[in-house]
Amino acid sequence: MRIPASENQLAIFILSLSCLLLMTGCGSPFGGRGDGTERAKPVDLKKAAAPVIRWSDSDEDGFPDAMELGSFNDRSNFRTWFTYIAEMQFYKISEQWTREQRDCAGLVRFAMREALSKHDRQWFQAMGEGYESLAPDIRAYTLDRSPLGEKLFRTDFGAFEMSDIDTRFSEFADARTLKNYNTTFVGRDRRQAQPGDLLFYHQPWVQKYPYHVMIFIGGERIAGEGSKDWVVYHTGSSAQDEGEIKKVRLSVLDQHPDKRWRPVENNRNFLGFYRLRVLE
After folding, report:
1. What is d(CA 154, CA 217) in angstroms, rounded to the nearest whole number?
2. Are the C-beta atoms of residues 182 and 154 closer than 8 Å to each other?
3. Cα 123 to Cα 16: distance, rounded to the nearest angstrom
4. What is the mean pLDDT of residues 179-195?
5. Which residues pair with 248 in a beta bridge?
6. Can you list the pairs that 253-262 forms with residues at least 24 positions away whose Cβ atoms lie under 8 Å?
7. 176 class by beta-carbon count within 10 Å (0-12 exposed, 13-18 middle, 19+ buried)
8. Does 236 have pLDDT greater than 90?
9. Longest Cα pair distance anywhere in the chain, in angstroms?
10. DSSP characters for 90-128?
11. What is the pLDDT of residues 169-181, one digit of tens each?
């Protein structure tokens, strides 16, 4: 716009410019909408992009990727807590492990739940005397914010689908369920086993519940003597016997008087070593 030369023209120009600025603040495309409503505010992309749990199952093992411990540190810390808690039950059973849950698979369930828990002062007080903080908590999630809540155990075959949360996951799993849907076969050679792996046996026609599970802890954390082939397990319960926790070396089980319980490759009742799928 050309600036006028005369004073009258200058006054008119200033008045026109003032009106233009007033319109800009009330109803022009550069100000408000002109209909009394506020102009739309820009979207805050950081708030809009809230984190969402990814329910993919990239390895199709039945567990969502969000449940699997993806980092080396998380897997290592889980193994430390899992084996330590299981071993501690040999010395004194925690009151947190309810009596009706005490059998071979119950030891696995209990140790897994407590390994995933938040290990704060309240946890140590509840577990009883003698527990120490041996490792950091798992960073991916703890039990109170697990993607599946407390339904840690899969109960059927298949890759993960959203509907499985209500139909194929449970807080409970017996030895057979642990083997079939919650672990992956590692091998029958103990040199392939890592602390926290499970040993399974199958004794058909001999006992009411043919599957039995033990926890391979490797080296002892309590009263250690340097050996790296320790296992801990519950003998199972019955109407007449509550059973007990045992801690023994594989080399001792190799000489078990009942050959069905020897963890050796030529024993067909010994199914081998298996790894929890949350560690895969």
Report:
1. 23
2. yes
3. 75
4. 97
5. 231
6. 260/201, 260/203, 260/206, 261/201
7. middle
8. no
9. 120
10. HH---TTS-GGG-SHHHHHHHHHHHHTS--SHHHHHHH-
11. 999 999 999 999 9
pLDDT confidence of 240, banded at 50, 70, 90?
confident
pLDDT tens column, 192-216: 999 999 999 999 977 778 999 999 9
* Cα–Cα distance measured from residue 234 to residue 117, given in angstroms and rounded to the nearest whole number: 22
* Pair 179, 105: CB distance under 8 Å: no
Give residue for tokens 């030895």.
175
Span between the terminal Cα atoms of the chain, in Å: 72
Q: Is 271 helix (H, G, I), strand (E, B) or coil?
A: strand
Instruction: Kindly report, residue by residue over 69-93, the tens digit of the pLDDT.
Output: 999 999 999 999 999 999 999 999 9
Q: What is the pLDDT of residue 9?
A: 54
Which tokens is 253 given? 């089980």
In degrees and rounded to multiples of 5, residue 273 shows phi and psi of: -100, 140
Rounded distance between C-alpha atoms, residue 4 and residue 8, angstroms: 9
Each residue of 4-39: b (16+ CB within 10 Å) or e? eeeeeeeeeeeeeeeeeeeeeeeeeeeeeeeeeeee
In the block, residue with structure tokens 């672990």: 183
How far apart, in whole angstroms, are the C-alpha atoms of residue 275 and residue 69? 13
Sequence-distant (≥ 6) Cβ neighbours of residue 196 within 8 angstroms: 78, 79, 82, 83, 215, 216, 217, 275, 276, 279
